[in-house]
Each structure stands twice: as C-alpha cells, then as structure tokens.
Amino acid sequence: MSPSPAPAEADGGPAPSGRFRRGRPARGGRRRRTGAPLPLLLPALVGVCFLLLPLLALLIRAPWRDLPDQLTSAQVWQALRLSLLSATAATAVSLVLGVPLAWLLARTEFPGRGLLRALVTLPLVLPPVVGGVALLLALGRNGVAGRWLDEWFGITLPFTTTGVVLAEAFVAMPFLVISVEGTLRAADPRYEEAAATLGASRFTAFRRVTLPLIAPGVLAGAVLAWARALGEFGATITFAGNFPGRTQTMPLAVYLALQNDPAAAIALSLVLLAVSIAVLAGLRDRWLTAS
What pTM was estimated for this model as a whole? Predict the structure, then answer.
C-alpha cells in the first residue's frame, strides 16, 4: 500500500519543505503553529530580562518621596538647563552642517565617496573618550587648529560651554547624516529634475523641492541627534571638563552625584530615562512605517 500524499500534493501543488510544513499550514488545512522553539525562547527571555532588569531596578530604587526636592535643587536645574541648551545648540550645528553633507553623499558622485561616508559615521563606533582626545588634539590650545584660533582670534574652546556643544555635535551629527541620507535615497529625484527643467538651480531645487520632501527624515534625524547629544558623556568630560554651571551636563552630574549623593544620581537618571522614552515614543510611528 502506497503512503498517503502530503496535503499540498493532494491539492495539486509541489511538496512543501520541512520549514514550510512547520511554520505555515497548507491551503485550507491545519492551524498555523505559533509557539516558539524552546532553544530560541529561553535566550530571548533571558535577553529581555537582561535589558529590562536595570531599568526596573532604577524605578524600584528611585526615591519617589524625595523626588520633587531632588529635581528642584539648584544643582539639578543648573545641569538640566545646560544640558538642554547645549543639546539644542549641538543639534542646530548638526542640522546646518549635516544636512548638506547628507545631500552630498546621497545625490553626487565623486571619488572616495564611500571612504568619506565611513569617516563621517566613524564617531558612531568610536569610543567617546577617544573622540574627546581627538577634539583636544584638533581644537585644544596646542591643537592643530586650536593653536591658530587662540593666537589669531583669542578663541579658546576646551573647558568652555562652547566646547560642550562641539563635543556633543561631534558624536551626534552622524545620527542625523545617516537618517537624512537614507531619506534622500528613498526620495524620488525626478521632482528635482522637473524643477531643473523649469529653470531652477540645484540649490533652489534643494531648498524649494527636496527639503520639504525630506522634512520628516530631517526631523527624525534631528530628534535622534538631540537625544544622543543630551546623553553624551565621554567626549564632553574629556574635551570640556566637569565644571558646575559651565560644562557640567546631566550625565556628568549623574556621575558626580553617584559618588556623593546616590539619591540625586537616581533622580537625574530618571529624567534622562524619561527623555529617552519620549524620543522613542515620538519616533515609533516613523520606524513602524519604515519597516
């Protein structure tokens, strides 16, 4: 007696593979299996616990009764104010410099473009402390360019609020460049070509056609850059130092408070956590749409 045919064979289709049989039912056949295999489920649950446990510990150990007093102290407001101002200024610098750079990478062809893109995105993977050292060597008083800024214009950048902005822009700008470049590559270039046929210059086409077209991508990149600048620590403390009221941002205040006042450190960390969650919530729809 010959064996009975597989369900797909019975319908006249090709014989399904083993993977197909396990993950998807035959047409009009059995219900789909939705359970995860145990070798995948266990590591996934451990990964969830690994990522969420520190955040839950932060919420559990937070001094909720003293939180209003902690957040309204002069030191916290000083650090919070400086962090918001410096992160906003760093985002503005990233927009002014990063959007044209993204357009250059997405819309033009020139030798070494791939190498330039790799160098532009290098701060994404570069240890922030190394970025701070590089900024000191470039813009410090004895740096490659900082020496001339000091001698010719009397401008000193390290250990100043301007140095905080530069350090944050250095690590945050690649996030904006990547976001805007991806949006530019997805945008239809025929709109720019149509504007060019009507007599518009390339800059006018960029300003009147391309920029409104990629505005959501620019906004998403700016939000990412702002959030990254707000949480910047390594390059800031290396290049700008940790002076309250001048260069001490929220992450630096958390680091300092953790040694003397753990409750204040937890309160400051909660503020940064709330900002991060707000950024993720604001970008959620865009990510889901992109996926």
Answer: 0.78
